[in-house]
Design a protein that fits this description.
The chain has 5 helices and 2 strands; from the N terminus they run βαααααβ. It has a two-stranded antiparallel sheet with strand order 1-2. The protein has 104 residues and is mainly α. It has one domain (15-78, 93-103). 55% of the residues lie in helices and 12% in strands.
């Protein structure tokens, strides 16, 4: 008989980790909105929209233009890391957050 079981996890970050999560979310919103505005502008000019690779190529320039503290943890760095992030990243959200597991 096949048994299906699910687990529910909840993060309980401390103050610094919560601040880092909020900064990362703000960076993601900023980059998404900047890319959306650029593509809407290109659409109005009847130009072809930029895809993922085209927008990624612009990201380093956006970082130089906007020196925000929220770019300390850019999405491009976080996604390129291996799954074994816990052993290599010290002091980050993924490394030291408390995780609670709830059985369902």
């Amino acid at each position: 008989m096949l048994r299906l079981q699910a687990f529910k996890f909840a993060l309980q970050p401390n103050g610094e980790q919560l601040r880092n999560l909020r900064q990362f979310a703000g960076s993601c919103r900023f980059v998404y909105n900047k890319g959306l505005a650029l593509n809407l502008e290109r659409h109005e000019k009847k130009e072809q929209r930029l895809g993922y690779a085209g927008l990624c190529a612009l990201l380093p320039n956006w970082k130089m233009e906007h020196q925000f503290e929220s770019f300390r943890f850019p999405a491009s760095r976080r996604t390129n890391q291996s799954p074994d992030i816990r052993s290599r990243v010290s002091g980050s959200v993924a490394d030291s957050s408390t995780c609670v597991r709830h059985h369902r």
